[in-house]
Amino acid sequence: MDSQSLISFFKEVPLFSHLDNEELEQLSQICSEKKFEKGQTIFYEEDMGTGFYLIMSGQVKIVMLSSDGREHILGLLRENDFFGEMSILDGQPRSATAIALSDIKTMTINREDFTKLLRSNPDMAIKIMFVLCKRLRQADRNVESLAFLSAPGRVARTIMQLADEQGIKDLEKIIINHKMTRQEFASIAGTSRETLTRVLMDFKDEGILDLSSKHQIILVDKKLLKEKIV
């Protein structure tokens, strides 16, 4: 990919969207393309972080695995999202596992190259720090959700977050296209698959959601959904 195409791509990535063209040009000099197949593990929890990734196409799930093999999904990421950034900033092992949910294409940036660039560009470092703080605040909200919200509240907040991040407005409705299984959805919401199914059916019966398509959630009444976040 040529430099101008990379710069256009970087402008769509939240981590870099506030950088100017000169800064983006410098980034384009230290990245490389890397592809992964569906189901491939990109890195494991406790691996040393040697680089981070920007998704050009496809979808990735970030998970934590228990000793008995159960997984808790921390996030589902798609085009223009980024992941693996914490380890390259603090030099610590990965805090979670990243798995390709589909064939994906990424741009990866090496830790050594990135930290060298930030040291020579303090303004760039400050801009990136603000974006990382925003992500940490979102993580805090997720912890709060697990700690204090009811099961319907956790499901409602998860749907609301999906609507805000990837929803497509259609008049008064919001269409959320996804590739999640019910188990993956339940893991993100911090509940069991059975509880998730019951809550979704309740929301459907109350006219909040339309679940007629397998890989699509249609948010019919956003106001009523917000009232469920308790």
Q: Could you describe the 3D structure shown?
A:
There is one protein chain. This protein is α+β, with helices and mostly antiparallel strands. Helices cover 44% and strands 24% of the residues. The strands form three sheets. It has a four-stranded antiparallel beta sheet with strand order 1-8-3-6. It has a four-stranded antiparallel beta sheet with strand order 2-7-4-5. α1 crosses α2 and α7 packs across α8. The model has no long low-confidence stretch (mean pLDDT 90).
Structure described in brief:
The protein is of the alpha+beta class. The protein is built from nine helices and twelve strands.
Residue share in β-strands:
15-25%
Major beta sheet, specifics?
A: 4 strands, antiparallel
How many runs of DSSP E, i.e. beta strands? 12
The secondary-structure class comes to: alpha+beta
Strand line-up across the major sheet: 1-8-3-6
Spatial extent as radius of gyration? 19 Å
Shape: globular
Please report the number of helical segments.
9
The N- to C-terminal Cα distance equals: 47 Å
Q: How confident overall, as mean pLDDT? A: 90
Q: Low-confidence parts, pLDDT < 50 over ≥5 residues?
A: none
**N to C succession of SSEs:** HHEEEEEEHEEHHHEEHHEEH
Helix content: 40-55%
Give keywords:
4-stranded antiparallel beta sheet; alpha+beta; 230 residues; globular; 12 strands; 9 helices; single chain
Topology record:
Elements: H1 3-10, H2 21-28, E1 31-36, E2 41-43, E3 51-57, E4 60-65, E5 71-77, E6 82-83, H3 85-90, E7 97-100, E8 104-110, H4 111-120, H5 122-148, H6 151-166, E9 168-170, E10 173-177, H7 182-189, H8 193-205, E11 209-210, E12 216-219, H9 222-227
Antiparallel strand pairs: 1-8, 2-7, 3-6, 3-8, 4-5, 4-7, 9-10, 10-12, 11-12
Helix pairs in contact: 1-2, 7-8
